[in-house]
């Protein structure tokens, strides 16, 4: 047994836990309940990564291996097997809280996302520990602060940590991203990349591929900042570079794939379907926070909707709603899917049910319901839904939207009622804030803006009587406002002319009003409709006219009209010469094809009565041909008769030439 124990000791010091385990098993064959041997066996199994087997040994020998002896090993095995709740119970049940248990306790709290307790645990550890692991504890502490800033939107406190390592710089950058300070975060990440390259370059065994793999998480965060800044092309390029490296961190791959899907949206769906497989990798759920996993599931549901997988979309959104009943997104996704299926009424009913069950989120749901009603053309119903959102009724944006919609529906009374309710809300709010104060209090800029908009709206739609009270309130707030006073006088002129005269006395006189306007420049401006002529030019023109009064005006000679060539002055011109030929009284129509119809008629080989007419030599206009020497001067008509088959109609050669010319022209154009 002594030899076996010495073998176990030697193998443990050399790190050969496989051989040490064999020796321990031999010892346990001799003494199966040896506490030290069982402890050594558990440690050897943990060192070899056999956490499940190590936990089995602990649970099998609970009588021997009590919680006081083996608490850390048991909790560590449960932690590595992702049984986080069990690990927490094991740590809390330990009678003595050692430094090892406190370290593990901090890790367990971080995984459970109990960041406040985790921060307190690490502060206590840093305060009461002095060893070579101080840098790692500070890194974990900065990671907790970054998580608080990112997921809980807590303003991080300055821990006074010196950012000497790239891990600390990276965590600091994550905290800045949570605060929305993207430019500062990018600078921190660039510094983290530089420190990472420096630290890894000191190790000669580290290759460039190892450096890029270590930098993958930093580059991923850089790409995320680019995406938030709207630089989607740069972000997408960096994301794809990281995926090509094939990092072993499944959590990093899942986050990058999810971000690419959000960039693609409803475009490039085939690429998104490939990327979504990376989010389903084994162990992803243990690497990411609950909010990250939830965001991935939301995007899966949206992708199913974009790819027309209605059943899959409904299944995913229903699962998300059961996990987070108060969350808005699952219901909105279901409503969007129903709208794609043209079931708008069902979508509105679904949203109304959710608003009734969760009044805290009713405002956002009702805004969506109003949008659906507008899409259906039910503007009045949309206005009713919007007016039911009490916390938004007085907001300028809501008032503007309602007034615009009511104006579109020509419901001026309802639009004025919206203005009135909003103004009354601000009056009541001012009365509550100034309770017990008798001094005149000026109204807020938003309140005054609403009153002015209400007055302008009433004046625009001819409600001058109703606009008077608003204008008086505005003038009371600012008696020097000439524009408001002018509007008030204009309104009173129709209701009470005497009052208008009294108010007009408050208008400033024309002498006191210094209008610094250059009239000449204004009249000569580009947009002026009338431009006054310069006096000098007018005077010069008048002088020229006076000098030229005695001159005789030169008359322009009229050109004689051209007469036709065959014009005969003795013959009276045709009175219908200006009418087209077809409209003249003596037009009898054209004789179509009289000669053409006679060509080629009769039996083959015979002559027609009109064949002599086709002989060009017999026409009156053709000159007589000279007789050949030795022949008679006159030749009988029958001796020169050509059979019909060999006859060529008159003008045929000319038409052929014309056709050839056309073909040549066409060929020339083709080249």
From TrEMBL:
- Where composition is biased (Basic and acidic residues), the residues are 565-586
The stretches annotated as TPR repeats are 216-249
Q: Which InterPro entries match?
A: Signal_recog_part_SRP72_RNA-bd, SRP72, SRP72_TPR-like, TPR-like_helical_dom_sf, TPR_rpt
One GO biological process this protein is involved in is: SRP-dependent cotranslational protein targeting to membrane
Source superkingdom: Eukaryota
Q: Identify the keywords attached in UniProt to this record, alphabetized.
A: Coiled coil, Cytoplasm, Endoplasmic reticulum, Repeat, Ribonucleoprotein, Signal recognition particle, TPR repeat
List the SMART domains hit by this protein, alphabetically: TPR
**Which regions are flagged for Basic residues bias?**
553-563, 655-671
PANTHER family in the record: SIGNAL RECOGNITION PARTICLE 72 (PTHR14094), SIGNAL RECOGNITION PARTICLE SUBUNIT SRP72 (PTHR14094:SF9)
Coiled-coil features, chain-numbered ranges: 84-139
Q: Which Gene3D superfamilies match?
A: Tetratricopeptide repeat domain (1.25.40.10)
The record's Pfam families line, in alphabetical order, gives: SRP72, SRP_TPR_like, TPR_8
| Protein family according to the UniProt entry | Belongs to the SRP72 family.
Example GO CC term: the record gives:
signal recognition particle, endoplasmic reticulum targeting
Q: Which residues form the Signal recognition particle SRP72 subunit RNA-binding domain?
A: 533-589
According to the record, the residues making up region (Disordered) are 533-671
Composition bias of kind Low complexity appears in 617-634
Q: Which SUPFAM superfamilies does this one have?
A: TPR-like
Q: Does the keyword Manganese apply?
A: no
Any one Gene Ontology MF annotation carried by this entry is: ribosome binding
Location in or out of the cell: Cytoplasm; Endoplasmic reticulum
Coarse class of the primary localization is: cytoplasm
Protein name in the entry: Signal recognition particle subunit SRP72
Is Cytoplasm included in the keywords of this UniProt record?
yes
